Amino acid sequence: MEKFQRYYLSFLMLIVYTNTIAQVNCNAVEGENCKKACELYNWASDRQGSRESQEAFDKAIGLCPDFSNSYMEKAVPYLKNGDFVTWKVLIDKAVAVDPKMHLGYRGWCKFQFLRDYNGAVQDLEALKKYYPEDLGRSLNGDYHLEVVKAMAYSALGQKEKSAAIIEKALLSKGYFKGMYDHYQLGVTYFELGRYDKASENFEKQSKEYDFAENIYFKSKVSKIRNKDYLDLKTLALRTYDEGKTMKDVYTHHFNKVYRKQIEAL
Length: 265
Fold this sequence. Notes:
The protein is elongated. It is mainly α and 265 residues long. The protein contains 14 helices and no strands. Among the domains are: 13-97, Serine Threonine Protein Phosphatase 5, Tetratricopeptide repeat (Alpha Horseshoe); 98-178, no CATH class.
């Protein structure tokens, strides 16, 4: 329970962070036009998605094309609405101006929204140039970006590499575990046919934060080993119906499991 509270507190802190990171100290911005662009950006960020907000970002970009945040924030409503073409045009401009600030965000979005796994790997590998020790976390706070990179490698079929990246991250000094790290590692080992390692990680996940998808894979391991799996299957269904599943506001988690899959086991 304490570990879940720690994850929950971390998520709340991330919400505060993402709500305040958009605001920039315009006194630190050089150049009169860029200061004005910064002020417009701050005003528009509080009204994200509105026509007035988008027009203000356009004015900010016109005043200071090198103020990368305007491109990034203008892009966000397009991402949320599924207009990935327009989003990519804008976020690519933000990255071109300031790759250190925006590569991680673009890499995460390529993975989570576009399922562009090659693009995600490229961005997150490039980010190491700027943050060799710690890539940071995904915008929703669920994963460290090293784990995001590992999941992208897994999706590309490089599962041994994926498992090695997550194992290394978990052993790193000062690493703050994500909510689903052991689950994702367990699924990767399961797909490799390494059921002992898969089971070990599903058990670790259960002790830290359990949910229907994790229980489902535990039941799959039991079935493969010719052990009684029906109780676990029933528990997975009940947990699913209770709403204790992998959730995301805008999209679906990697290795997400649905009720029909549990029923079919």
